[in-house]
Amino acid sequence: MMEVKATAKTLRIPPRKARLVLDLVRGKDVEEAKAILKYTSNFAADASLKVLNSAIANAVNNNGMDEENLYVKACYANEGIVLKRFMPRAKGSASAIHKRTSHITFVVSERD
Question: Which of 2, 26, 108, 109 has the smallest set of CB atoms within 10 Å of its CB?
Protein backbone atom coordinates (compact mmCIF):
# COMPACT_ATOMS: atom_id res chain seq x y z
CA MET A 1 0.00 0.00 0.00
CA MET A 2 1.07 3.55 -0.66
CA GLU A 3 1.84 5.77 2.31
CA VAL A 4 1.82 9.55 2.31
CA LYS A 5 3.67 11.60 4.89
CA ALA A 6 3.64 15.16 6.21
CA THR A 7 5.99 16.66 8.79
CA ALA A 8 6.11 19.90 10.76
CA LYS A 9 9.55 20.65 12.13
CA THR A 10 10.79 22.64 15.11
CA LEU A 11 7.43 23.28 16.75
CA ARG A 12 7.66 24.85 20.19
CA ILE A 13 5.90 21.95 21.87
CA PRO A 14 7.73 19.49 24.09
CA PRO A 15 7.62 16.06 22.41
CA ARG A 16 6.33 14.44 25.58
CA LYS A 17 3.21 16.64 25.54
CA ALA A 18 2.72 16.19 21.79
CA ARG A 19 2.82 12.39 22.16
CA LEU A 20 -0.12 12.53 24.59
CA VAL A 21 -2.27 14.02 21.83
CA LEU A 22 -0.93 11.79 19.04
CA ASP A 23 -1.77 8.65 20.99
CA LEU A 24 -5.45 9.63 20.75
CA VAL A 25 -5.60 9.53 16.93
CA ARG A 26 -3.20 6.75 15.92
CA GLY A 27 -5.01 4.13 13.80
CA LYS A 28 -8.24 6.12 13.42
CA ASP A 29 -9.98 7.18 10.19
CA VAL A 30 -8.99 10.70 9.14
CA GLU A 31 -12.46 12.18 9.73
CA GLU A 32 -12.56 10.79 13.26
CA ALA A 33 -8.98 11.94 13.89
CA LYS A 34 -9.81 15.45 12.69
CA ALA A 35 -12.80 15.59 15.04
CA ILE A 36 -10.73 14.40 18.01
CA LEU A 37 -7.97 16.95 17.34
CA LYS A 38 -10.46 19.76 16.77
CA TYR A 39 -12.11 19.29 20.17
CA THR A 40 -8.98 18.55 22.20
CA SER A 41 -8.03 21.69 24.10
CA ASN A 42 -4.28 21.61 23.74
CA PHE A 43 -1.82 23.60 21.66
CA ALA A 44 -0.30 20.34 20.40
CA ALA A 45 -3.72 19.35 19.04
CA ASP A 46 -3.94 22.52 16.93
CA ALA A 47 -0.50 21.94 15.43
CA SER A 48 -1.23 18.24 14.88
CA LEU A 49 -4.47 19.07 13.07
CA LYS A 50 -2.56 21.26 10.62
CA VAL A 51 -0.07 18.48 9.92
CA LEU A 52 -2.88 15.93 9.47
CA ASN A 53 -4.67 18.21 7.01
CA SER A 54 -1.42 18.60 5.10
CA ALA A 55 -0.94 14.83 4.91
CA ILE A 56 -4.51 14.39 3.65
CA ALA A 57 -4.00 17.10 1.01
CA ASN A 58 -0.76 15.42 -0.09
CA ALA A 59 -2.55 12.08 -0.45
CA VAL A 60 -5.50 13.47 -2.41
CA ASN A 61 -3.73 16.00 -4.66
CA ASN A 62 -0.35 14.36 -5.29
CA ASN A 63 -1.26 10.68 -5.28
CA GLY A 64 -4.95 10.62 -6.25
CA MET A 65 -6.13 8.74 -3.15
CA ASP A 66 -9.75 8.79 -2.00
CA GLU A 67 -10.12 10.86 1.17
CA GLU A 68 -12.93 8.69 2.55
CA ASN A 69 -10.71 5.59 2.64
CA LEU A 70 -7.75 7.25 4.39
CA TYR A 71 -6.69 6.45 7.94
CA VAL A 72 -3.82 7.51 10.20
CA LYS A 73 -1.31 4.71 9.79
CA ALA A 74 1.31 6.29 12.04
CA CYS A 75 1.92 9.53 13.90
CA TYR A 76 4.84 10.40 16.09
CA ALA A 77 6.69 13.31 17.67
CA ASN A 78 10.47 13.23 17.59
CA GLU A 79 12.65 15.58 19.57
CA GLY A 80 13.89 18.65 17.73
CA ILE A 81 16.47 21.18 18.79
CA VAL A 82 16.58 22.31 22.42
CA LEU A 83 16.78 26.05 23.05
CA LYS A 84 18.95 26.62 26.10
CA ARG A 85 18.33 29.64 28.30
CA PHE A 86 19.74 30.55 31.69
CA MET A 87 18.06 32.09 34.72
CA PRO A 88 20.04 33.89 37.43
CA ARG A 89 19.97 32.21 40.83
CA ALA A 90 21.31 32.94 44.29
CA LYS A 91 24.96 33.74 45.00
CA GLY A 92 25.83 34.61 41.39
CA SER A 93 25.02 31.19 39.95
CA ALA A 94 22.65 30.30 37.12
CA SER A 95 20.37 27.41 36.28
CA ALA A 96 19.57 26.10 32.81
CA ILE A 97 16.13 26.26 31.23
CA HIS A 98 15.54 23.86 28.33
CA LYS A 99 12.88 24.95 25.84
CA ARG A 100 12.22 21.78 23.89
CA THR A 101 10.93 21.54 20.32
CA SER A 102 9.48 18.64 18.38
CA HIS A 103 9.05 17.34 14.83
CA ILE A 104 5.49 16.02 14.35
CA THR A 105 4.93 13.50 11.54
CA PHE A 106 1.72 11.95 10.22
CA VAL A 107 1.61 8.97 7.85
CA VAL A 108 -1.72 8.28 6.15
CA SER A 109 -2.67 5.32 3.98
CA GLU A 110 -5.75 3.84 2.32
CA ARG A 111 -7.73 1.03 3.91
CA ASP A 112 -8.28 -2.09 1.83
Answer: 2
